[in-house]
């Protein structure tokens, strides 16, 4: 027996099937497939935004957890990303204009000193030719000119380097830092978003499982929903009827307070009997076998049916 609670219903259906003529209906009950909505992260339940018995639409907020720590983490991640991007921009631009102006000024001084040293060397060469100075003085003038020329080349190189960005390896390393900061920010934003949970499906709020102020663990359901498409009817038919049934067969569901019959469609037929006598099958015991069948009511009529409600199903 796979559904002990349904034994009485199954027996009633069997007795009905044994009577002469077509049965007035098959006994069954309504069952709900509930959606348990839980947060992905834990926290204190700050606000419960729905109540039991309330009908909600898809996307409507259900509850909110305390998010003080997550907001601080999000702000920290924002600032770290801004800092990493600023460092990358600095490496890509090279030195500032004011720093380049300093190098230009030093270069202008070096050029002037080089010209002065060159003029002095030319005068000393002329003086040496007429015997006015010693050879050593000319050598000193030429060495001073070489020093000044080297200084000009040095500052020219520095000015050129100041216009260049950082080395490719440094830029790639900083780009990786920016990407890492973006990933940290995405994680912080995701954790903050998980503190406010909305419904992915519309339906009936069947129950709320926590009160405001209580601690909710990650993955613990806070709200239990019953979407309209998650209502089904289970009923039981004799084995002679089950053999001819196919998914897609129309069914009519009758219940107290429903008014007109509710249209439904057979969606599942059990492959084994619900009630089996403790004897070997025989022609006499076949009539006692019933099979569980599931049917889905039309979406616009599902709200008329409540889980646990007894129903009678006919197969037109």
Annotated CATH homologous superfamily of the largest domain: Efflux pump adaptor protein, beta barrel domain
CATH architect. name of the largest domain: Beta Barrel
Q: Between the first and last Cα atoms, what is the distance in angstroms?
A: 29 Å
Shape, per Cα inertia axes: rod-shaped
Outline of this structure?
With 316 residues, the protein is an alpha+beta fold. 41% of the residues lie in helices and 24% in strands. The chain has six helices and 14 strands.
Notes on the structure:
The chain is α+β, with helices and mostly antiparallel strands. It is 41% helix and 24% strand. It is built from six helices and 14 strands. The strands form three sheets. Strands 1-10-13-12-11-14 form a six-stranded antiparallel β-barrel. The protein has a four-stranded antiparallel β-sheet with strand order 2-9-7-4, with no helix packed on it. Helix 2 packs antiparallel against helix 5 and helix 3 runs antiparallel to helix 4 (135-162). Mean pLDDT is 84; it is low at 1-22 and 278-282.
